[in-house]
Fold this protein.
Amino acid sequence: MKANSSFSLLVLLVTALVLGACGGQPVSAQGFGTEEFIEELRAKGVDAERGDSVEQAFFSVVGDYVNLNDESVQVFEYETPDTMESDAQLVDASGSPIGNSMVSWIATPHFYKKGRILVLYIGENSQMLNTLESVLGPQFAGG
């Protein structure tokens, strides 16, 4: 019986270490990246494909366009949720300024975040906004 108790203690210790390393967030949210975003969109019937890369001077990583039906969003994937949050904190609630950059958008910007990704949609399509919110939760900045 002692070996069984030791094994149980080891399992509890490993579980505690894993949860501690995840900062208290569910592992699924921690691992949510561009591929998981695309998979969830496809599960909702959206034709989602990764496109060209995109750079925004105010974000610390290079992103990718993700083409959704006839529109696209910019997806910036970070190593960790904490590094994503560092860039997200630069975005004013209105969507501009971002850090020291004043941005004049061609349409209303909408910023979302989940796990390790920050998503930018520039547009007014209510169906797109509803879809993004259903996958990513409410926007944190923008119109």
